[in-house]
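It would be a great kindness if you could assist me with a short task in structural biology. Thank you for your consideration; the sequence and its tokens are set out here.
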Amino acid sequence: MEHELVGLAGPGGRWRPVAAGPFALLAVVLALLPIRPVWLWAALIGVVAAVPWALGLLPDRRRGRAYWRLSAAGLERIGPDGEVLASYERDRIDALAITTGDGVLTVFHRFGRTAVGGLTAMGMEPLAVFVTARRLGIPVHVLDGEATDLMDPAQDETMRIPGLDDDVPEGSTLPRDHAAEKRLLDQEAALLAAAHDPSGEEPGEGSGGEGRPAPRGGAGQRLDTPEPLPSRRRIAALGALTALLGAIMIVRIALDGTGEFGARLAAGCWVLAAFTGVLVARRRLLRAAQVSWTITAERLLVRARPGRRREAQDLPARDVAAVVVGPGLRLDPVSGEPRRADLAALAFGHRLELVARLPAHGLDGFQLAHALDDHGYRVITPGARAPRRPEYGLEGLPEIFAQVPGGRLVVADGGLGWADAAGDVVLKMPEDRIGGIELLTISGHAWVRLYDNDGDEFFAAPLSALRISRTDLRDSARRAGLPVNDAEYDAYMSAAFHSAVSTLTVPEPGTEPEPAAAALSSQSAGQEGPAPLPGPSGEQDAAFPAPPPPSPVTAPGALLDATRRSRVGTYAMSVLLCEAVALLGAVWLGPELGGFNATATWSVPAGFVIGLVGYWLHDRDRSQLRVSSAGLAVVTRRGRVEWDLPRDRIGGVGIDEARERMPRLVVWGPSGRVLRHIAFPPDLGELRRACERYGVPWGPPDADRPASPPPEL
């Protein structure tokens, strides 16, 4: 059908154990029983342990799941065999409602209301239901509250309060249900604009339509979620080793004899440990699946399940009118039921039909949206994010600042002062108290920081609150001999100097002149006659050699190391891991080496020394982050450069706050792409100050509210 929405449902065919818990308990009970002969005892344990996996191979256990469908026939629930399990005919549906409290879909009909179920359990997204139902001619409403509030029609009049449902006064915020419905209407309008763009590409045409935005991302881009820790191979190896160890111990106990209850109890513990290890490894393997996106101007290739035999979702670009990136649904890897996801992508076609659900959990939403936009796709997001505010306040402003009307900051008598409207200085800070004045930019606004002689910050405020411009404060303080640091202005002047002098450099013999140099020489030729020919040495008299600009490794800056706490913690973890291996080795090999006590007397000290010395060898060449006005670089203590990024490629430095993975310190590009990961954790306060001191943006790039350029630069 043209307008049809099929709910998200788990496909059949996955091998999963059936009733693993009861069969594990039965295997433990059999291990405790004194069954004779012992080969029958061991065989029964093995057969019972294999029954759950054998049941998972049965054909009727591997069928698909029931799903919901919204089409011209109405709202239906289809079983695995295609039979209709529940049906709400189209001609009997007056309207649909989605409650904001619990997300339940309610059907309004001529005899009342019926709560069908939660949209998450039905595998449907609110936007997809909203758009599809309106295309079918079914009104859709968003109601504040829960579905239980709609079941009693008598509450409509008894609970109505006069004046509560009147129009919202002008200037106030919308109610919750109105705001949610307005957001859905805005997204639908954006989809309509993308699908019915007169200059856009129609379905069935080639992938190079004139209306599609020109791709800016090159040949293609690949986005992957980070690899799980531990890796999938290690998880599978640990699960297999646990099962193998349990089987070997059962066989060994059977060979030694099961006459004593202690031996059978040990066998039961090994059976339980093997079952638990295999089930935990399987669960970790399913949850460790990675999501991989390959974005090109011609197609989208998304792979969300591990294994080479799994077919990826291949979506041609000509079938996609727009991609909605935001919160959505995904299949639970263990149970196969729909669950909420922080990030998902819905691809809509040119007739507003849902073409595909593309999983994106684990990816960065900002990075995904910009990658799709760079390759020519229309991207729609749920709404603008809240602007990021700087984490600074005006707590350091003295009270006299507010008590003096028209006051402003001035440089007087070799120090700083606060002058009133008449120009009289009412508050003075002498020069001997000022250890440094730092000018920087925070969220596009000029700020000043004051440091004492010990290097501690004691005052910070925006220059707009102090009623002085950045240029006046910098020039006045430098004329008075005060220590002023304006790294952004100095970097700007250095870049301007290099760009001006680079046109005066002489090209090497056999190379073409630069466009700027050629233009300069042509202008000189037009004004002053023919250019002088180079002398025998190949040099010109008017050439001024310019030194190359400093690189992120050689430029002066701040060198940030890992925190002392993290280093001590890593030392302790290394030693504890070696001690654990030493103790396990003493338990495992103790009987063959003279007993546990004798083995532990030399293995425990050896583990301590190995852990301490091993990490010391690694720590003496640890990585350090170098922040400068030329960019960022990670160098080791021995001088080896791991990576470096120039300033023009950096869009921001900060914490990647992802919910399904550990927060990481990353470097973003100007478009929001993650360029580098910083493996070691430096002090965030020092990193923030170093970034602001040397003009490196702190925090991820903000697409909704881009910061203005630094004032007076």
The two ends are 60 Å apart (CA to CA). Residues 232-288 form one domain.
